[in-house]
Structures are given as structure tokens and as C-alpha cells.
Amino acid sequence: MEFNDWKPIYKQILEDFGFSKEDDESAALLLSTLLIADSVEPPETLMQLIHGKNILVCGNAPTLKKELDELNLQDYIIIAADGATSVLVDREVIPAIIVTDLDGDVEKEIEANIQGAIMVVHAHGDNTDKLLKYVPLLSKVIGTTQSEPFGNIYNFGGFTDGDRAAYLAHHFGASSITLAGFDFDDESVREIKKKKLQWAYRLLQNLV
């Protein structure tokens, strides 16, 4: 997705949640400075992994384990959305790509990263402390923002980790995108999470 297409959606998200565009931009600048040459992965690697492939995007809903049992994981390139990584790692499955804002089980994400997973790390106004703590520990990192991209910080579209992972797959030309571990009607989560799930559903509909 081009930023000009994303920009009006981003504006609606800012207004709906009361987020600060300036805070998002500051976080993106911070992430940019934390990405040293040895730790950066070029976007071309994502193109090689994704283009023309069948992609499985794993969210972290409680249904994920059951859904994984019903799939032949060898048929897919796997993209994990943040917390889904721990479920996969516990099954001794290393996702090819992890899309994360670093608020899940980051230790499991680091473990997967050491074993080869590419980290697509997202900066937003609420996670600067996590960026400072964890980004220096990572390798094979691609930085993203929900605000305007620049330099070594990209915006492939999407808002939550789950739908951002799907937008990533779409951006790089996946042949198909299968979702596992997505529950848009989860009543067990907090109200703000419910609102985010509604946005995730709405954004994913745009990819259909």
C-alpha cells in the first residue's frame, strides 16, 4: 500500500483512538536511529520470501493452536503477529517473519530471531521504551511506522500486528493469504482491544 492511500485511513485511526501523530513520528525517528547497518534486513528479502507464495498469517487468538493442528504448515511461508510467535516456537515452528510492536513474549521472538526469523519491528507513540530495550538485541530487522515512511522506516499498511502482517504479505505479492488465530469478536479482551479488533477486521476486508 502506498502512503497516500494509507494516509486518510491513518487519520481516521488517530481521531478514533486519540493517538498523537507527533508521538508516532518521534517513535519512528527513534527506531531509525536504533537500526545500525549490521542489524538491518533489506525489504528485498521480504519480496524473495513472499512474492508468489502461499502465506499463513498467525494471530494470537486462543483458537490458534487448534487451527494450526488442522493445517499442513509445510504448505506455507509463516508470518507471526507478535504474540503468536510464542505459540509457534513452543511447537518448534520458527516463522519466516515476525511482525511486532514488541508487546508480546519478546524473549520468544528473540529466540526465533536467533534461529532466522526476520523481525518487522513497528514503532508507535506507546512503545518507545520497548524499542530502546529490545531493538539493540535483534538482528535481521526491518523498521515500520503507521505514519509517513522515510529512509530506513517503511509503511506497508495496516494497524494492529495481525492486519499489518496481512498487509505486508499483500504488499509483497503473496499468491494467497490464509489467516489463523484471528477472533474479531473476542469478548474476553479489554474495550480498547475490541476496538482494535474491529479496525483489524475492517482493514482486512479491504484486502479481500
Shape: globular
Oligomerization category of the chains in this entry: single chain
List segments where confidence is low: pLDDT < 50 over at least 5 consecutive residues: none
Rg is: 16 Å
Mean pLDDT across residues: 96
Strand proportion, as a percent range, falls in: 15-25%
Count of all domains: 1
Strand and helix order: HHHEHEHEHEHEEHEH
Order of strands, widest sheet: 6-5-4-3-2-1-7
Largest sheet: 7 strands, parallel
- The helix content is 40-55%
Number of helices: 9
Q: State the secondary-structure class.
A: alpha/beta
Q: Could you tell me how far the N terminus lies from the C terminus, measured between alpha carbons in angstroms?
A: 14 Å
Number of E-state strands = 7
Mind explaining what this structure looks like?
- This protein is 44% helix and 15% strand.
- It is built from nine helices and seven strands, in the order H-H-H-E-H-E-H-E-H-E-H-E-E-H-E-H.
- The radius of gyration is 16 Å and the shape is globular.
- The mean pLDDT is 96.
Please summarize what this structure is.
By secondary structure, the protein is an alpha/beta fold. The protein is built from 9 helices and 7 strands, in the order αααβαβαβαβαββαβα. It has one domain.
